[in-house]
Write a structure and sequence with these properties.
Layout lengths: L2 H9 L3 H10 L1 H12 L2 H18 L9 H20 L5 H11 L4 H12 L2 H12 L4 H8 L3 H18 L7 H4 L5
């Protein structure tokens, strides 16, 4: 069954269709949540809260073709709600420890993660969605509810700030940012 049919059925009250949609997008939701909250347990909590809120509000979805955009927006709000609730930033120490265990010698990635966490919220969100989730600028604009040119500005300024925070070190852009701007 196509994704659009599943969305239509979910909007009509079919919980099994919504469950299939959530399973279909679970990996992407988890990865996005993890980038925001920085650890496995909190990321799973964010995904669970996202699923709960989606179940409660699926009937409010206006346009079926933007289901993933709608779901990602819910996830971002859930992630920020969790961070506000805990009154803390992303626990970079835990992320660094986990990353060191898995990727010894990849200091550039650690520097990037630490620098990402220091960016303003809107810069970080646009960079995460564009470079880590491969979302097109048009989708990011819809998720963040801003014009496309503003997304482009956020990406440029965010990259500029990252470059400054990384000490002006010239990193291979393909290693850090796997997509073209």
């Amino acid at each position: 069954m196509s994704e659009q049919k599943l969305v239509l059925e979910a909007k009509a009250g079919n919980k099994a269709s919504l469950e299939q949609l959530l399973i279909l997008h679970s990996d992407q939701l988890y990865r996005t949540a993890y980038v925001y909250v920085g650890n496995r347990e909190d990321a799973l909590d964010v995904v669970q809260e996202t699923a709960y809120r989606a179940i409660l509000s699926i009937k409010k979805l206006r346009n079926e073709q933007y289901f993933l955009t709608w779901l990602t927006r819910i996830l971002i709000h859930c992630a920020y709600d969790l961070l506000k609730k805990k009154k803390r930033e992303i626990p970079i120490e835990k992320m660094i420890e986990q990353t060191l265990d898995k990727r010894e010698g990849n200091i550039e990635l650690l520097d990037l993660v630490e620098a990402l966490n220091k960016l303003k919220e809107h810069y970080r969100t646009s960079i995460i969605l564009f470079y880590f989730q491969d979302q097109p600028i048009r989708e990011i604009a819809k998720i963040m509810d801003i014009p496309e040119n503003t997304v482009k500005t956020y990406l440029r300024r965010g990259k500029d700030q990252l470059k400054k925070m990384l000490g002006g070190v010239e990193y291979d852009e393909k290693t850090i940012f796997p997509r073209r701007v």
